[in-house]
Structure prediction request, 235 residues.
Amino acid sequence: MDGVGEPGRQPHEGRAGAGGAQGDFAHDVMGRPIWRLMLRGLGVYLPGWRTPETVLRVPGGATGFGPPAFLDGAAGFGLQLPDRRRGLEPDREIYVRGRENPSFGIVVAGPAEAIGSRVVDAEVLMRFARRLTFEELFDTGDADSVPYAVRGARAVENVVFLDRAAGVGLCAEVEPATRALHCPLYVRIGGPAERTVWAYAPNDGHIPNNGHTPNNDHGAGPAYGAEAQAVRSHS
Prediction:
């Protein structure tokens, strides 16, 4: 697990939108469904904030982002929280893309303590997201909703968690080829005065190539677009 750098410092390798290797790096990250789900969530829960136009590359030493985030090799980013609280009900929106084999994505907004763990990695975040998805799709008055809720929870492959108060966010995904879980994106949310969001990704050696490009989304159409919205709920 790599240590964290000073908050607010920019990665010494610069913006990933530059040419050459940096441009390839940005293309790989920004072509993934998780990136578009993140932008979708920011538009819903942080209207008026300037969304990131590119991704900032975090070197192995993790310079460029600070606590409570950490970087854990191929597992990607994680959050180390001072506390955990039960009974919190964060807002959430569930999206589905694809038809024959639908993939679910969920955006959750609220205090990170609601996840229920002081150390949040991809496995913890995905487990929390699948539980929320099941609860959202399950109708207590309709027993027939159980199979649908179970299938929906199992089909969650992308999750974005945004904590506006703490100024952080974390994104997890299932890698299609290996089915491995990892967190390829960390989000830093600026305060009301600046209204800017920054997105960070590990260096390209820690980002599995899942074959996604903006025009290669397995026939699912625009990932998590408005027409793909399945459930919307605000607690």
